[in-house]
Design goal:
This protein has eight helices and twelve strands. With 231 residues, the chain is of the alpha/beta class. The strands form three sheets. The protein has a five-stranded parallel sheet with strand order 2-1-3-4-5, sandwiched between helices. A four-stranded antiparallel sheet has the order 6-7-8-9, covered by helices on one side. A three-stranded antiparallel sheet has the order 10-12-11.
Length: 231
């Protein structure tokens, strides 16, 4: 079954180039050139992944992303010429799964798209009640069926990246992961010192599952090395 992508890019030439590359990869593409049209297509088409330019008219990329995250955890890959650390942190903080700065190659873009869709669909269960799809550590439970976490009786919705980071820790409880290793396992890409991306996702994940994010119990920092689960 073909996967569908919602492409939101106001530059017609760039949009056509991206759409052509995605069609060659056997994706179905729905293109929008402004935020309002994109939101309508999102509700109508229910895409498997969204490629989102930040600088779009009528409804800007950040506001559109917030609206999408009100109802869906579909993978969102930001594509934008705004490549500063602040913009990256802001985009990821609103729930984007990844960020690619313009200019980029079509090979890199399609590789990121394939990886994001693979991660989002890899753990879909065949038996919704299987206890093998439940991971637990203390008061924290990760449900591979609902793609969510439950902590102290409260269900929290996770982005695709947050989910996979937490799953990585909970299936390797005694292991310390460096930022490079986390990036390799979760992004499935080469690490080029992308510390800000890792830091933002860890911070957002802590805000969702920790009583005190500044004094974390579940995701612990091992100074000079990386992160691990628990003590």
């Amino acid at each position: 079954m073909q996967k569908s992508i919602l492409l939101i890019e106001d530059d017609v030439e760039i949009s056509q180039l991206i759409e052509s590359a995605l069609l060659q990869e056997n994706f179905t593409v729905h293109a929008a050139f402004d935020g309002e049209k994109a939101l309508a297509l999102f509700h109508d088409k229910e895409p498997d992944l969204i490629l989102l330019d930040l600088m779009i008219p009528k409804l800007n990329g950040m506001d559109l992303l917030k609206k999408i995250r009100e109802t869906s955890m579909v993978p969102v890959l930001i594509i934008s010429a705004k490549g500063s650390d602040l913009d990256k942190a802001l985009g990821l903080g609103f729930g984007a799964d990844d960020y690619i700065s313009k200019p980029f190659s079509m090979i890199e873009l399609t590789a990121r798209v394939h990886a994001a869709i693979r991660r989002a669909t890899q753990y879909h269960p065949f038996e919704s009640n299987s206890t093998q799809n439940i991971l637990q550590y203390g008061e924290l439970t990760l449900d591979l069926n609902s793609f969510s976490a439950n902590v102290r009786g409260r269900t929290v919705q996770l982005t695709s990246k947050e989910f996979h980071i937490l799953k990585l820790f909970m299936t390797n409880r005694s292991r310390v992961f460096t930022k490079e290793q986390i990036y390799h396992f979760i992004w499935e890409d080469d690490y080029y010192g992308n510390e800000n991306v890792i830091n933002v996702h860890i911070r957002r994940l802590r805000e969702k599952i920790e009583k005190d994010p500044s004094n974390p119990h579940y995701i612990r920092t091992i100074w000079g090395i990386g992160y691990k689960l628990g003590v």
